Fold:
Amino acid sequence: MCVGCEKKGNLAGLRWIGLFSDEKITLRGSAFDTLCATLEQQMQYDPGERDMVMLQLKFEIKSKDGSTETRTSNLCGYGGPNGYSNMAKLIGISCATAVLDGTILEKGILAPLTLKSIIL
Structure:
């Protein structure tokens, strides 16, 4: 990778989402709310457009005997054009399944702070 390429790419992305634009913005309750509202306008899907989610998880495992191994899990999925986004399906379906099968009994916004809440 060339020197400065990542920085140039980051700046191009920030420029694309409008952070350096001279266009007027509508102020919201906080700077974060204002940024979110601006991003919602910029990042709307065009008719027929869909999202793609790519995810790679790498687990470095060290066994009791001291041996190590790496396990990798890959996911690539697409949302439906004019339908649910793949992100909505991935998050919504897994959460709904955990609620319906009784794995999650609590209500509200839950953070994975205990081993019980992490292992579903």
Q: What stands out?
A: Residues 111 and 117 are 8 Å apart (CA to CA). The two ends are 39 Å apart (CA to CA). DSSP finds four helices and two strands in the chain. The helical segments are 5-16, 31-42, 86-100, 115-118.
